[in-house]
Specification:
Blueprint lengths: L2 E5 L3 H13 L3 E5 L2 H10 L4 E4 L2 E2 L2 E2 H11 L4 E5 L4 H9 L4 E4 L4 H19 L4 E4 L2 E4 L4 E4 L2 E2 L4 H11 L5 E2 L1 H9 L8 H15 L9 E4 L3 E4 L2
Helix pairs in contact: 6-8
């Protein structure tokens, strides 16, 4: 049974979603404040974290950052904060998905299933990826450039894995978003993907202004060139 940690202060939303998730067979632990979330996070082992951004005593963004220091557990933001800057911030600090309210229950449950499925795929690899001086040790979830560790967010790590698993293959923006975030709406768009690409290039390219690893194929998408 997968264990979901749900951090949300809206009691009506908690009651409705915990009922729906438990009906799907998930075990649910709920925290309604940042303080309670800190305590319960330390006392449990979770397969997925669902976070609201606005909590009575703090920010879901801050709690996400704390988690990412110690864990690669999948994180989903479920929030009314729907500004593009909020979405980019959430994904940039390590969230794997970002759903804005209001939302459809079926889509919400589908996205949970997708995150857990991808997490299982990423956590049970049997190979190492290596090219262009970049190495991914998939069993550990770590990346290296010329032997030096790369400080990658969860989204950057998954994006890099996707490129390295498809060398010399042009991937459209739609393919990338569909593979990494199961995009079913407007919660992430090409502009956000461009931010991810730019920041990943800053970490892996010798000259980010003239990328040689992740190259843009005009009018088609991006390619990991080997």
């Amino acid at each position: 049974m997968k264990h979901i940690f749900f951090v949300e202060d809206d009691l009506s939303l908690i009651n409705g979603l915990t009922y729906a998730m438990r009906k799907e067979g998930y075990e649910i632990t709920v925290a309604r404040t940042s303080l309670e979330a800190d305590r319960l996070w330390g006392n449990g082992k979770y397969d997925l974290v669902i976070l609201d951004v606005s909590l009575p005593d703090g920010s879901g963004f801050d709690f996400c950052k704390k988690i990412r220091v110690v864990s690669r557990v999948p994180i989903m933001f479920l929030t009314a904060a729907d500004e593009e800057t909020d979405i980019i911030m959430g994904l940039d600090i390590g969230a794997d998905d970002y759903i804005t309210k209001p939302f459809k229950l079926a889509v919400f449950l589908s996205r949970i299933n997708a995150l857990l499925r991808r997490s299982d795929n990423f956590s049970q690899p049997d190979t190492e990826l290596s090219s262009n001086g970049i190495t991914i040790q998939m069993l550990k979830g770590e990346g290296y450039k010329n032997g030096e560790p790369l400080e990658l967010t969860s989204g950057e790590y998954k994006l890099l894995c996707l490129f390295m698993e498809n060398p010399n293959v042009v991937l459209s923006a739609e393919q990338i978003l569909g593979r990494l975030w199961d995009c079913e709406g407007n919660f992430i768009d090409n502009k956000t993907l461009t931010v991810y690409i730019r920041r990943l290039r800053m970490k892996i390219e010798d000259d980010p202004g003239k990328p040689e690893k992740i190259v843009t194929v005009r009018g088609r998408g991006y390619k990991w060139r080997t």
